[in-house]
Amino acid sequence: MSTTASPTAERLIALARYIKTHASSTLTLKALAARVHLSPSHLQRRFTTLFGVSPKAYQTAIRLARLKTSLRAGTPVLAAGLNSGLHSTSQLHTRTVHGLSMAPSDYRRGAHTLAIRYVVRQTPLGWLLMAATERGVCAAQFGGSKRALVQQLRDEFPNANFSSAAAHNPSLDAWCAALIKHLAGGPRPTVPLDLRGTAFQMRVWQFLTQIPRGQTITYQALARGIGTPAAVRAAASACGANSIAILIPCHRVIRGDGSLGGYRWGLDKKRLLLAQERPPQPKVRQDSR
């Protein structure tokens, strides 16, 4: 893949920056198309090919991220909506409940209606936290300490109903044990997942679960696999946004030149995971002389 973007791609990248800067404004497809001297239909097609989402979906994702930041900071719901570009109560609820997985008012209060169970275990790769809602595993993350992992989980939903007691969810303890066995070479555990992301991220994460143990693909192949061959950067970003380690095996995605690329939990862990999953080499028979 060439590292030099085409003139059209450069204009679209500049347009994406413009959308990010003006995300709270009303941006019509016609007006955006005029900025890059393309027809609306051509812009829609080319932008989606490059970034994996339409201009409208891209703007909505930025607005949602800003809304989440404002709500976590304690900003009143309507003010947070206005600041992020959602100018009515109906927009707040119809466009954000899916992205937040709850009503904006509940998110602002720290998801007090959401029950999250978690366990933290020591593994050969360090501390591992696994958390689950009633829908399934929502996080599986490595960290330097038990305290840091728990704090990271609480930071996302500061007032959620947390419990670390395995008795509240015996399945969670069993899932974590199965994942640790998987790290040692056992089969990949089949557990329900509570995925929370954009439509594009969900497509990436679902595709990643299909990569067999011991195999790797490139970021370019990942983008092609989900039907958006030009959205390599967006596919790589979705890998970085994955909060469920191993069960969504983003460590199996590498660069086209064979180098590791990035990994949310550190390249040392990625390198070790790939080495553990690599099929054993056949022994070379030595002929006796």
How would you describe this structure to a colleague?
- Helix 2 crosses helix 3 (40-51), helix 10 crosses helix 12 and helix 11 crosses helix 12.
- The chain has helices spanning 7-21, 29-35, 40-51, 55-72, 77-84, 89-100, 104-108, 146-156, 170-183, 199-208, 219-225, 232-241, 267-277, and strands at residues 115-123, 126-133, 136-143, 161-163, 217-218, 253-254.
- The protein has 13 helices and six strands.
- Helices cover 48% and strands 11% of the residues.
- The chain is an alpha/beta fold.
- End-to-end separation in angstroms reads 50 Å
Q: What level of helicity do the residues show?
A: 40-55%
Q: Can you give the mean pLDDT?
A: 80
Briefly note the CATH topology name of the largest domain.
Answer: Arc Repressor Mutant, subunit A
Side-by-side strand order of the widest sheet: 3-2-1-4
- Coarse structural class: alpha/beta
What Rg is obtained from the alpha carbons, in whole angstroms?
22 Å
- Quickly count the domains: 3
Beta-strand content? 5-15%
Based on CA inertia axes, which overall geometry fits? globular
Structural descriptors:
289 residues; alpha/beta; Arc Repressor Mutant, subunit A; Double Stranded RNA Binding Domain; 3 domains; four-stranded mixed β-sheet; two-stranded parallel sheet; 13 helices; 6 strands; globular
Topology:
Elements: H1 7-21, H2 29-35, H3 40-51, H4 55-72, H5 77-84, H6 89-100, H7 104-108, E1 115-123, E2 126-133, E3 136-143, H8 146-156, E4 161-163, H9 170-183, H10 199-208, E5 217-218, H11 219-225, H12 232-241, E6 253-254, H13 267-277
Parallel strand pairs: 1-4, 5-6
Antiparallel strand pairs: 1-2, 2-3
